[in-house]
C-alpha cells in the first residue's frame, strides 16, 4: 500500500496543495510525524533541563522500529536530540475526518486499491524552518517508522496568503510585489537628483533558503521562537551585519576595500548569502543599500512581506535628543569637535509586514527594521521592528528602537554658534530638512512610490508638531532649549545652487544674497567644498574660498564660483558625492547665515545588449560594454553580471581601460525562468566606482 501526502498551509489560504511524499506502508494505525532538525548541545545548569534547541541543521538518525518496551536498536543514539511537542519541534499529525482551522491535521482525500492520498494542513503558528518527515505506524508490538529520506524533508515558511498567519497581507498585487518578486529597485543619490539601482534578491535561487536558515542557526536563535516574525526580523536585523556577531556582511565606509568587494560592485544578494554559508565567515563589504538588499532577501525568502525604503536627509541622532545639533564657530565654520550628530544624504532600511500582538491595536502592518550597524540596541547592533504607525504619531515608547527611527525622519536641524566665552546661541532652526522624502519601489513597476506620509504628517501641520511633542514626552533625552534664545530673522537672505555636475568636468556654483531692508550691508562669505561619504561624513576639503559682498538697500547679488575637475577628481569616493557649505557674517548686525547642499556627480553607465531568442531553454548572448570617458586610465576593472532566472552571478576582470577605449564582455546563457526578467551589471575600478546598468532580458 502507498500513501500520497499533500501539504495545505491553512484552511483560509488561497494557495493550491503541494504534493511532497509518496511512501509504501502497511497501516494499522497511521500518524504522520514531523521533527525539526536540531543539534546536540552541551548540558546547561540551573533551571534548563535540556540543551537549547538553536540549530535547524544537525540531526541524528531515528530507528525504523521501536519495540514496545524493548531496548533501543544497536547503533541508534537518541541522546542529545530533544524535539519536543510543546516547543513545536516535534509535530504528530493525526489523521482526522475533517480539518480544523488553525490546527495540524491529515485528511484522507482518496483511497484506491492499496493507495491512500492524504491532505495535510499545517498550523499558521508553526515554526519556520526545515522539518524531517516520517510516516509512523503503531502496531501491537511497537512503532514502525519510515526510513530517513532527505527527499521528503519539508520546509515550512510564513504564509502571507493565510488569513490566520501573523504576516497575512491582503491583495494579490501586494503579495506578488513584496513576497514573490525576486528583482527590485533601490533608490539612492540626492533629494534633488534621485538615482536608482536594480537589485537581484534571488530568494528562489538554489541554496538561498538553506542559507537564510543558517543565518538563524548562526545566531543561535531558539527554534521555538522561529514562528514569530517579530523575533525573526529582529534576529535578522542583527545577523545581516557582522558588527558584533560574525553576521553576514562587514560594513565599510572608509573607501578602503582590501580583501573584499566594494559595496557598489554587488548586483544582488545571492553571491553574498551563498558565500557566507559556504565560508562560515562574514562577507566583505557592505553599506546601507547592500545591508537592506540582503535583509530583504532574508525576509522574503522566509515568507515575510518586505520592501526596501530610502530616506533622503536621514538623521543619525547620536545623543537621542531628537534634534540634529550643528555647532558653528563664531566665524561661521562648522565646529567638528562639538558636532556629533550627522545627516546622511540618504539611508536605506527595510519594512516588514506583520501583526504586533505585543503592542496596542492599530500598530501592526509595516514595521521598520534596519540591519545597517549604527547604534547598539539591547547589547547588539540592530534596529526594529518599530511600528511605522507608532513613529508617525510619536508613540516612541513602543518597542523596538522607535526613538532612533523617529529621529531619522522627523527631527529638527539646529544651527548653534558656540562662542568663545562658552555660551551657545541658536542661529536658525530648520524643521523641514530631515526626512525630506521617503520612498520605495512602486507595486508592479520600477517607479518611485512616495511613502513620506506614512512616517510623518506634512511639515508645518499642527499634527506634525504634536507628534514631535509626544515623542519628547515619551522619554527622549531633553533637547536643547531654544525658546527665548533664538535670534530674530536677519534682514539678509542667502541661498545657493549647484549646476548639474558630470564626473571629470568643471561646473559652477551660484550664491545669491538678498537684502530685504532699506539699509546697506557688507558681508564676509566663506565657501567650503568637501569630498564626503553619503553618510555626511567629510573625507577632505578640496575647495576653500573667501569673498566680500556689498549689498545695497533692497537689492540682490549673485556670486559665481567655478569648481574645476582637477580640484576634486583625485580624491573622489565611491559614490562621487560633493558637499558644499556656505556661511556668511553680516558685519553690521553680526548675523550668521548658513546653508549646505550636496550634489552627486553624474557617472558614466555600462551598456547591456542582448541577442538571440528570449525564450526559456534557448541560447541567448549577453554583451556588456563600457567606454572610458575620463582622461585617465582605469585600472583593476571588475565587471559583475547577474540576472535571476537568466544567468548565474558572474564577474570578469580587465587590467586596464585606456582613455576613450571601449571594452566588451560576451556571455552565452540559457534562461530557465519565464516572465519579465532583468539583467544587471556593475563596474568598479581603482578610481571609478558605482558604474551600473540594467536591461529587460
TrEMBL record:
- Name-wise, this protein is protein-glutamine gamma-glutamyltransferase
Q: How is the cofactor bound?
A: Binds 1 Ca(2+) ion per subunit.
Which Gene Ontology molecular function entries are recorded, alphabetically?
metal ion binding; protein-glutamine gamma-glutamyltransferase activity
In terms of SUPFAM superfamilies, this protein maps to:
Cysteine proteinases, E set domains, Transglutaminase, two C-terminal domains
Keyword list (alphabetical) reads: Acyltransferase, Calcium, Metal-binding, Transferase
- Catalytic reaction annotation: L-glutaminyl-[protein] + L-lysyl-[protein] = [protein]-L-lysyl-N(6)-5-L-glutamyl-[protein] + NH4(+)
Q: Of which family is this protein a member?
A: Belongs to the transglutaminase superfamily. Transglutaminase family.
Q: Which residues form the active site?
A: 288, 347, 370
Q: What is the lineage of its organism?
A: Eukaryota, Metazoa, Chordata, Craniata, Vertebrata
Q: Which InterPro entries match?
A: Ig-like_fold, Ig_E-set, Papain-like_cys_pep_sf, Transglutaminase, Transglutaminase-like, Transglutaminase-like_sf, Transglutaminase_animal, Transglutaminase_AS
Which enzyme class, named as a word? transferase
Top-rank taxon = Eukaryota
Q: What is its EC number?
A: 2.3.2.13
Annotated Ca(2+) binding lies at 410, 412, 459, 464
UniProt domain Transglutaminase-like: residue ranges: 280-373
Obligatory cofactor(s): Ca(2+)
Amino acid at each position: 500500500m502507498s500513501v500520497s501526502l499533500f501539504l495545505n498551509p491553512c484552511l483560509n489560504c488561497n494557495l493550491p496543495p503541494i504534493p511532497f511524499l509518496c511512501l509504501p506502508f502497511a497501516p494499522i494505525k497511521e500518524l504522520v510525524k514531523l521533527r525539526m532538525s536540531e543539534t546536540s548541545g552541551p548540558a546547561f545548569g540551573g533551571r534548563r533541563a535540556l540543551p537549547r534547541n538553536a540549530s535547524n541543521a544537525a540531526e541524528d538518525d531515528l530507528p525504523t522500529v521501536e519495540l514496545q518496551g524493548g531496548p533501543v536498536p544497536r547503533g541508534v543514539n537518541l541522546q542529545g536530540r530533544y524535539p519536543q511537542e510543546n516547543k513545536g519541534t516535534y509535530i504528530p499529525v493525526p489523521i482526522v475526518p475533517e480539518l480544523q482551522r488553525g490546527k495540524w491535521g491529515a485528511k484522507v482525500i482518496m483511497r484506491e486499491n492499496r493507495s491512500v492520498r492524504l491532505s495535510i494542513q499545517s498550523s499558521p503558528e508553526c515554526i519556520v524552518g526545515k522539518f524531517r518527515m516520517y510516516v509512523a505506524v503503531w502496531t501491537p508490538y511497537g512503532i514502525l517508522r519510515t526510513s530517513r529520506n532527505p527527499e521528503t524533508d519539508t520546509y515550512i515558511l510564513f504564509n502571507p496568503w493565510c488569513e490566520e498567519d501573523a504576516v497575512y497581507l491582503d491583495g494579490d498585487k501586494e503579495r506578488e510585489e513584496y513576497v514573490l518578486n525576486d528583482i527590485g529597485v533601490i533608490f539612492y543619490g540626492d533629494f534633488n537628483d534621485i538615482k536608482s539601482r536594480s537589485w537581484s534578491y534571488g530568494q528562489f535561487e538554489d541554496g538561498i533558503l538553506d542559507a537564510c536558515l543558517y543565518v538563524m542557526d548562526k545566531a543561535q536563535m531558539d527554534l521555538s521562537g522561529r514562528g514569530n516574525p517579530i523575533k525573526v526580523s529582529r534576529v535578522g536585523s542583527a545577523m545581516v551585519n557582522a558588527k558584533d556577531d560574525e553576521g553576514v556582511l562587514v560594513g565599510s565606509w572608509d573607501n578602503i576595500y582590501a580583501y573584499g568587494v566594494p559595496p557598489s560592485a554587488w548586483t544582488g544578494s545571492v553571491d553574498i548569502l551563498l558565500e557566507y554559508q559556504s565560508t562560515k565567515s562574514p562577507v566583505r563589504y557592505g553599506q546601507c543599500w547592500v545591508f537592506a538588499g540582503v535583509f530583504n532577501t532574508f525576509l522574503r525568502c522566509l515568507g515575510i512581506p518586505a520592501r526596501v525604503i530610502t530616506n533622503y536627509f536621514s538623521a543619525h541622532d547620536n545623543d537621542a535628543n531628537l534634534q540634529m545639533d550643528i555647532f558653528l564657530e563664531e566665524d561661521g565654520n562648522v565646529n567638528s569637535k562639538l558636532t556629533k550628530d550627522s545627516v546622511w544624504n540618504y539611508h536605506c532600511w527595510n519594512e516588514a509586514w506583520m501583526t504586533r500582538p505585543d503592542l496596542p491595536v492599530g500598530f501592526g502592518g509595516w514595521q521598520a527594521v534596519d540591519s545597517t550597524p549604527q547604534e547598539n540596541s539591547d547589547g547588539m547592533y540592530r534596529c526594529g521592528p518599530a511600528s511605522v504607525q507608532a513613529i508617525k504619531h510619536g508613540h516612541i515608547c513602543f518597542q523596538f528602537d522607535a526613538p532612533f527611527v523617529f529621529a531619522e525622519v522627523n527631527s529638527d536641524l539646529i544651527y548653534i554658534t558656540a562662542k568663545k566665552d562658552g555660551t551657545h546661541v541658536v542661529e536658525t532652526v530648520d524643521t523641514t530638512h530631515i526626512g525630506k522624502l521617503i520612498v520605495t519601489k512602486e507595486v508592479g513597476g520600477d517607479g518611485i512610490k512616495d511613502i513620506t506620509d506614512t512616517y510623518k504628517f506634512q511639515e508645518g501641520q499642527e499634527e506634525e508638531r504634536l507628534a514631535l511633542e509626544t515623542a519628547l514626552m515619551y522619554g527622549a533625552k531633553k533637547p536643547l532649549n531654544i525658546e527665548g534664545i533664538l535670534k530674530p530673522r536677519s534682514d539678509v537672505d542667502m541661498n545657493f545652487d549647484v549646476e548639474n555636475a558630470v564626473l571629470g568636468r568643471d561646473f559652477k556654483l551660484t550664491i545669491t544674497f538678498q537684502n530685504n531692508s532699506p539699509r546697506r550691508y557688507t558681508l564676509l562669505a566663506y565657501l567650503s567644498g568637501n569630498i564626503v561619504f553619503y553618510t555626511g561624513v567629510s573625507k577632505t576639503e578640496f575647495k576653500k574660498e573667501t569673498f566680500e559682498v556689498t549689498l545695497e538697500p533692497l537689492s540682490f547679488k549673485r556670486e559665481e564660483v567655478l569648481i574645476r575637475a582637477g580640484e576634486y577628481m583625485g580624491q573622489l569616493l565611491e559614490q562621487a558625492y560633493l558637499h558644499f557649505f556656505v556661511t556668511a557674517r553680516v558685519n553690521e548686525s553680526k548675523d550668521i547665515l548658513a546653508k549646505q547642499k550636496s550634489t552627486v556627480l553624474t557617472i558614466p553607465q555600462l551598456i547591456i545588449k542582448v541577442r538571440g531568442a528570449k525564450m526559456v531553454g534557448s541560447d541567448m548572448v549577453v554583451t556588456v560594454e563600457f567606454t572610458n570617458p575620463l582622461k585617465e586610465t582605469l585600472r583593476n576593472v571588475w565587471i559583475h553580471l547577474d540576472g535571476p532566472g537568466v544567468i548565474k552571478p558572474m564577474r570578469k576582470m580587465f587590467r586596464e581601460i585606456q582613455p576613450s577605449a571601449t571594452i566588451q564582455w560576451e556571455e552565452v546563457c540559457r534562461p530557465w525562468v519565464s516572465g519579465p526578467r532583468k539583467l544587471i551589471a556593475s563596474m568598479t575600478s581603482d578610481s571609478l566606482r558605482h558604474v551600473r546598468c540594467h536591461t529587460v532580458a
